[in-house]
Design brief:
With 322 residues, the protein is an all-beta fold. It has a single domain, classed as membrane protein fhac: a member of the omp85/tpsb transporter family (Porin, Beta Barrel), CATH 2.40.160. It is 3% helix and 58% strand. It has a 15-stranded antiparallel sheet with strand order 1-2-3-4-5-6-7-8-9-10-13-14-16-17-18. Strands 12-11-15 form a 3-stranded antiparallel sheet. Strand 4 and strand 5 form a beta hairpin. The radius of gyration is 21 Å and the shape is globular.
Length: 322
Amino acid sequence: MKETNFLGRGQVVDISLNTAQESRRYGLNFVEPNFLGRDVRFGLTLNYAESDSSFATYDSTTGLFRPSLEFPVSENGRIQLRYTAEQVEISARTPAANGAVIGNDIAVGKQISSSIGYTYRYDTRVSGLNPDAGVLLEFSQDFVGLGGDSKYAKTTAKAVGQRRAFNADVVLRATVEGGALAFSGGANRAADRFVLTPGILRGFEPGGIGPRDTTGTGTGDALGGNLYVAARLEAEFPLGLPEEYGISGAMFYDIGNLWNLNDVNTAGGSVIGEGGSIRHVIGFGLLWSTPVGPLRFNFTDALRKETFDREQSFDFTLSTSF
């Protein structure tokens, strides 16, 4: 339930309840867009989540508290400052199916982290001088270690270039992003590391690529990674159908890599894929604007992959804007 003009003040109140089979999440998000009568957005996020996702062989419980302030620093640039307190516990699933590396993470027990962070965002896609082209630049860092059990820095960066062509009927988009995790204290667990989802690299399940511990059951435990990089090239175009149908198409080409397990307790495990390799994926998408929201159907083929990867040749999502 989301109200974007609460009590007529422009405030955002967002209450979410998710009771899906593989995850349960309860969240509250509040935004005051004119804090103290200025162009400053005050945000407060409270989340509690329990997950037994199919891509992992362990369960997790997470509690999060995050206040933030966001304000402009230029005509198209904004910065967000935030504090985050988070408690994460991972536990064995019954019957236990964990490999040695995840077993080491579970043995650590409940971990509490306290951090400060910021995100700088520069966006000209809407307010720029060229209505047919724009860029989005985003840089984010979180420094964990203000108390709590862990000390590390997490950095992510993204660059998006977008342009309309052929009488604005075709949208061309290129995206490059990456992330790095550097530990200096505490336990480096799978719950802390990067895991690539179809939103970052299509053609694979969540956790479908990257380092894996083969001492687990089946195809082993997805361990995530300290480093990742991904690039996506996409063209959206009309299919010649009547405009009132709201159906268009997209062709895309994705590449990505997830690697590095420095500072990870891998004792007893048999890890493959730690060095990483570039995956290549091509695909076709159908975009459909419906009363419930923009739906997207992706059909993919992995041109380059590893034998231990978990492919996903079709996915269906409620699409979001870039």
